[in-house]
Amino acid sequence: MSFLAIHHGRPCCPASQPRVAQPQSSRLLDLVRARLRTLHYSKRTEQAYVAWLVRFIRFHGMRHPATLSGTEVERFLSHLATTRHVAASTQNQALAAILFLYKHILDVELPSLNAVRAKRPQRLPVVLSRNEVRRVIGELPRDPMALMIELLYGTGMRVLECCRLRIKDLDFDRNQIVVREGKGDKDRVVPLPASLAGRMHEQVRRVERLHEEDLRAGLGNVWMPTALATKFPRAARELCWQYVFPSARLSVDPRTANSGRRRHHVDESSLQKAVRRAASRAGIRKKVGCHAFRHSFATHLLESGADIRTVQDLLGHADVSTTQIYTHVLQRGACGVVSPLDRL
C-alpha cells in the first residue's frame, strides 16, 4: 500500500495505477505536519497544505516528490489553471504548499516556474445597505449569535477574529477591543460599539458562570498560544484567557497530545449558517455571508466621511490599495452617476 493510503486509511489511487514503493515515504506527510506546527502555522493552513500535497502526489502517479522536479510542478499548476479552472488564489495556495514541502522538508530549491497562471478577476464585495443589515440581524437567533454578527458589523472584524476573542481582549474602560493574531499574525485595535457594551458585559458573566462549572468538574483549561501553556501552566484555567464566545461542547485538540477535554471557541461555520438562514428569512436577494458585514462596515464608514487611512487601520489591511476597493462600491452606488434613463 502507498504512503498516502497509510495516512488516510484507504487506497488513494485506482488499482490499475502503478505504485512506486519509496523508502520512508510513509512519514512524509507527518514530517510536513510537524514542521508546520513548529513554525506555528494555523490548523487550517496545515489541513490545506496536506490536502494539496496529496493531490500533487496523486497527479504524478504516486511518485515520491523527491523524484520530481520543477517541470512536474509546472505541469500540476498548469493542470489546475487549464483543466480544473481554479481561481488564482486557489492555484497560489497549491503552489505555496508545494514550495513549503521542497524548501522545509526535502531541502530542495525549485527553479523559477513557468506554469500557466490562473487569472485573478476583479470582484466587488457584497455590501448590505443599513436597512438590510437591520433586517438580517432582526432574523438572527438570540445572543450570542446576534451579538457576534453585530460585532462584525460594528467593528469590521473577520468572523474567525470574533470567534477567537478572549475576555482579556475586551477593554470596557476605553471602549475598544484588541484583535490578537489577525491576518498576517498582526494585532490591531477596533472600537467597541457603545450600544453593545451592556450585552458584552452580560456575555462575560455567562462565560464566568460556565467556567466555574467547568472548574468544579475538574476541567476549565483553554488552548494557549505558542509556548504560554508551558511558561504559565496555570494561566489556561484563568478567566481572562477564556473565549468570549465558547463552544457549548467540550472537545479534544487533535494537534496537541494529552491535552484532555477543553472548551474551544464557537465554530465559525455555525455562524455562517445562521447568517445565511437569517438573510433568506429577511428576503435579502444577495449572497450574504459573515464577511459581508465587514464589507458593509468599511463602506458605511467611508459613506459617513471617514478617512480611508483610518478605515485601513481598522480593517488591518497592509496596503491601502486593498481598502480602495470600497471606494469603487461607493462610486457605483447612490453617490455615483445618474442613469440617462432617469433624465427622460
Write a compact overview of the structure shown.
With 344 residues, the chain is mainly alpha-helical. It is 47% helix and 4% strand.
- The stretches of 5 or more residues where confidence is low (pLDDT under 50) are 5-25
Helicity level: 40-55%
Average pLDDT taken over every residue: 85
Compressed to H and E, one letter per element, the order equals HHHHHHHHEEEHHEEHHHHH
**According to CATH, what is the topology of the largest domain?**
hpI Integrase, Chain A
Number of helices: 15
What is the total tally of β strands? 5
Strand order of the largest sheet: 1-2-3
Portion of residues in beta strands equals under 5%
Q: Globular, elongated, flat, extended or rod-shaped: what is the shape?
A: globular
Main sheet record: 3 strands, antiparallel
CATH class designation of the largest domain:
Mainly Alpha
Radius of gyration: 24 Å
Helix/strand structural class: mainly alpha
Give me the CATH superfamily of the largest domain.
Answer: Intergrase catalytic core
**What's the structural domain tally?**
2
Head-to-tail CA distance between termini = 74 Å
Gross CATH architecture of the largest domain: Orthogonal Bundle
